Here is the input.
Amino acid sequence: MIPKLQVKDLSYSYHTMDGETEALSDISFEVSAGEFLAVVGPSGCGKSTLLSLICGLIKPDSGEVLLDGHSVSGVEAGIGYMLQKDHLFEWRTIFSNAALGLEIQKKLTNEGKKRVSDLLSVYGLESFADSRPSELSGGMRQRAALIRTLALQPDLLLLDEPFSALDYQTRLSVCDDISTIIRGRKKTAVLITHDLSEAVSVADRILILTRRPGRIKGILTMDFADKSLSPLKRRNCPEFSKYFNEVWRILEQPGGVL
Amino acid sequence: MKTQITLAQQEFVARQKKRRRLVGVGRIFLLAAILALWEASARLGLINDFIFSSPSRIGLCFYGMALDGSIFLHTGITILETLLSFFLVVLLGIVGAVLLWSSRTVSEILDPYLVMLNSLPKSALAPILIVWLGNNMKTIIVAAVSVAVFGSILTLHNGFTSVDPDQVKLIYSLGGNRFDVLKKVLLPGSVPLIISNMKVNIGLCLVGVIIGEFLSAQAGLGYLIIYGSQVFKRAHKHIFSKRECFIC
Ligand SMILES: Nc1ncnc2c1ncn2[C@@H]1O[C@H](COP(=O)(O)OP(=O)(O)OP(=O)(O)O)[C@@H](O)[C@H]1O
Ligand SMILES: [Mg+2]
Here is the structure.
């Protein structure tokens, strides 16, 4: 079976007048359909760059990204990218914010509108459809941003630290919410996070990157006895601290590439 | 979301309303106080009422001109010219800023020239305009537009370029192109800036129109001010300056 996403020998450098910044070097991995991959690594190691490359927002210097076996060139319809901040536009209502992607892709048909309203009501925002983003709590805004991404019906979701703007408690519950939503819809997802416990609690596998330029330091499979546990429940499992320590150990290893 | 209005909310609304009334009353009171002070000092000879005129003389003069209708003609022409040049400035400002935004290279080439044109004393251009366009309303409007348009382009372009790059990235990640960035982020996000820019522009346009009328006009408030100062009828001049304030 062809993996949902294949990343092959990806390298990327940023160029500015002050010089060249090598952000990523020789990254290769695969994500199969329905899998949830978390990516962790030190700040500035090129995690956001990796997502921009997968999504087709920037072109790699070398290597390639394959979605369903096809090379990604330009922004791909099957990929939904959720940025670190929600970027809901204050001059739009929640509904029209959630429908922004459909509007841009000229898919705002009656069916599209209905899909957005359905998503809003499923995720408990229907009474806020006509509100402005500033009237919503952080967690609700994050859900609205997720709906904006889901409305385009992507198969692959790229999540760039989507919970980092939330306070700890909201963060736990929104993370639980969103990962349940994504798993419920059988989407494939790549999640970037700073928070190791978050990575262990949501992911099927964890990709660990080195300091800049980011290389793969290790890939760890989370093998929980009960596959269907929600992130919050996983935190209480005996395996949880084992994997946490394992990820920690790999991250702390000096320089070496596994 | 509508909820039942609580006592605290009612109190809050009442306090805000009271404050707003106070602001209104305060403004009127201040105007009355200034007028009274002016009139009194003219009557008591503290200021020379030949040069500074006085509210009552202005009132009389206004009454006279209102009777023969001339004040309405002149005011109307000035308002018309101001509005016309204002709309032109807003339009040209937005179009110019969008064009500058669409090419970074072009905008960097043009930037020093725009700054220069903006700081050029426009009244110095007026004689050229008269020779070029003739002694008519076209000249006045071009003069007024030239006062405001360059600053307007610079301000709006500056606003466009300082938009959050992540918002732009969002549009691209949703499959949009540069035109979508313009339509969905730049223009709607700049509405507050455009409005505040319009407030500045209406004033600048009026200044530009009056300058234009000083130099080449058969009608309008600027023409009356020049006419008034030539016949040294100070009351004239004051009344028109006042009218200008009210138009704003
Ligand atoms: N537009 C840019 N121009 C130049 N250098 C950049 C640019 N964007 C990122 N970089 C550099 O590339 C490196 C990787 O950036 P990236 O944003 O991918 O890191 P990250 O892993 O997402 O960091 P964080 O965890 O802090 O979000 C950083 O060191 C940064 O300095
Ligand atoms: Mg990042």
